[in-house]
Amino acid sequence: MCVKTNTPHKKTENPTSFLLVFPHVSSFIASLPLSLFFHIFFCFVLLSSIRQPLINLTELFHVCFPFSL
Q1: Which ranges does the record mark as transmembrane (predicted)?
Q2: CA 47 to chain centre
Q3: DSSP class of residue 68?
Q4: Pair 49, 59: CB distance under 8 Å
Q5: pLDDT tens digit string along 21-34?
Q6: How far apart are alpha carbons 61 and 43 in whole angstroms?
Q7: What's the pTM value of the predicted model, to 2 decimals?
Q8: Which pLDDT belongs to residue 50?
């Protein structure tokens, strides 16, 4: 019976540990430069466009990073 009471206890520890880590993650995201945030967003767009190959990747790159040319 002790083992059965320990397993739900461990399941409740996971969301609380996530809630403890979440303010640190949100403050880390808030401390990031805006350009790095857009770069991370571009990486997510790139990963989603790999799943949907209808989007031209070079066209997407030229739209997001016109200054790199």
Answers
A1: 25-47
A2: 12
A3: G
A4: no
A5: 666 666 766 666 77
A6: 10
A7: 0.26
A8: 63
Q: Are 60 and 49 in contact (CB under 8 A)?
A: yes
Concatenating the DSSP letter of every residue in the chain gives -HHHHHHHHHHHHHHHHHHHHHHHHHHHHHHS-HHHHHHHHHHHHHHHHHHSTTS-HHHHHHHH-GGG-
For residues 62 and 69, the answer to whether their CB atoms sit within 8 Å is: yes
Report pLDDT digits (tens) over 9-62.
Answer: 444 445 556 556 666 666 766 666 777 777 777 777 777 766 655 556 666 666
Q: What token pair was written down for 57?
A: 């990747």
Contacts of 55 (CB under 8 A, 6+ apart): 49
Residues sharing a CB contact under 8 Å with residue 30, sequence separation 6 or more, in sequence order: none
Torsion of CA 63, 38, 44, 26, to 10 degrees: -170
- Tell me the two tokens of residue 54: 């209808």
The answer to whether 45 and 60 are in contact (CB under 8 A) is yes
